[in-house]
Amino acid sequence: MEPKHRLTQFDLTNIIVGAIVGADIYIASALTAGLVGPFSIVVWMVAGVFAGIIAMVFAYCSFYVPHVGGPFAYVSAALDQFYGFLTGWSLWIAELMALPVFAIAFVLYLQSFVTLNLEGQIVVRALFIGTLTLVNIIGVKAAGRFNDVLTVVKLFPLILLILAGLLAFFTKPEAVAANYSPLLPLGFQNVAYAVVLVFWAYVGFEMGTFPASEVEKPRSTIPRAIINGMAIVGLFYILTNFVLYGLINWTVLTESKTPLVLAGTILFGTAGAAVMTIGALFSVSGSDESGMLGTSRLAYAMALDGLLPRIFARLHPRFGTPYAILILQGAIAFLLSGYGSLSELISFSVFNIAFAYLLTCIALIVLVRHQQQHLVGQRILPLIGIAICTFLLYSTTLSDKIAGTLVILAGIPLYIYFSPKEDIHHLKRLFLAEETVLLRQVEIRNRYLGNFIRLLHLAYQRILVRIRSL
């Protein structure tokens, strides 16, 4: 059955932007200050290019395999279900590792308002994760009514920071030059690891590479939307970081756990600090809520295929949400939030993400061999993607390599135990229904920067209509 509405290039661009930009900008910026200093601005550019190339690989995979499941579906179709399982497993672990990052960041920014002792931090993390888990179990449709307001609340501080920062740079260019000099004070030894941490901020583009059957003219629309979406995200990230490193000397930034609050204080005093803190709290909450939703759906989809315990596919009798996996991942996220540091969790997450992306790049090479289509760059892009993923895997820490490899290998006995079991056909048909998939993806369009672009587009259209009516 054809969906009632096909996504245009503009729709798809919004989905990609909304899926990528969240709370990452509040977290990742200061982590690289102590690694490479002001050279971080270059790192953000490089990581954006890397992510854009792999995003194009995903786009072409979705063209050749127009099925639900993302990399899990692509790799399963190109290789076999075992490698598809390893891809989905590593991606689920990566997303699971990202959930506690937001809980830690929420506590750090909350302490700009109130000082918390260790017990208080534990309570806040528990309430934060518990509340968002409950929201996902109950359902988030009602929350969508407030999405336009929340978008402004989350974006306003960053847009204000960019505009005010650029204005300050024009009036005092010598201060900017001083903060950017020397550009690479610590040499190149930590650049690779800095790229790993920043790459995490660009993850999420795979949300825009869902089945080509849901997109108007997918052969041209998906690649263009990927390019446009990544360009918007990259510009937004680079402008924010350009202002941040121009305002604050990297040695000071290294010591700050809330870098954008520090920047807001410099530009607007205590009022600016309060505005940036509120924006951070809203953004971190929104990103973790959507992250929980996406992570649970991945595990749910694999459980429907019989590759994970059936309890992961158990739906709440009233709300129809996979409550069992939501509760489990919430508990794991809470435990990890008290164990790992931000950089350690992000780095470990990127190791698993890079492994899943590596298999996806290999999958495209196989898919292209059996097709008559001639998409631009379809043979060279996966090779470049393999090189990028190999670089990311190599650039993580030794502990990440060891732990990440062991976790991925731990998935093999799970596959051996669960794969002979039948999938849950009736739930799988419902979950994979084209209309259901379309609705899930359109929801992402209304997130964060993607929704802001949509609002600007609507305002622009209304202004044009009024001008033409005069």
Give a structural overview.
- The chain crosses the membrane at residues 12-35, 42-65, 89-110, 122-143, 149-171, 183-205, 225-248, 260-284, 290-308, 320-339, 345-368, 380-396, 402-419.
- The protein has 470 residues and is an all-alpha fold.
- The protein has a single domain, classed as Amino acid/polyamine transporter I, CATH 1.20.1740.
- 75% of the residues lie in helices and 0% in strands.
- Helix 4 runs antiparallel to helix 11 (218-247), helix 5 (71-78) packs parallel to helix 16 and helix 16 (342-369) runs antiparallel to helix 17 (381-395).
- It is globular.
Quick structural gist:
The chain is mainly α and 470 residues long. The protein has 21 helices and no strands. It is globular.
Assigned CATH architecture: Up-down Bundle
Largest sheet: none
- The poorly predicted ranges are 1-5, 140-148, 423-428, 434-440
Q: In CATH terms, what is the fold-level topology?
A: Amino acid/polyamine transporter I
Element order, helices and strands? Answer: HHHHHHHHHHHHHHHHHHHHH
- Percent helix range: over 70%
Number of domains: 1
Oligomeric grouping of the chains: single chain
Q: Count the DSSP helices.
A: 21
Radius of gyration equals 22 Å
The top-level CATH class is Mainly Alpha
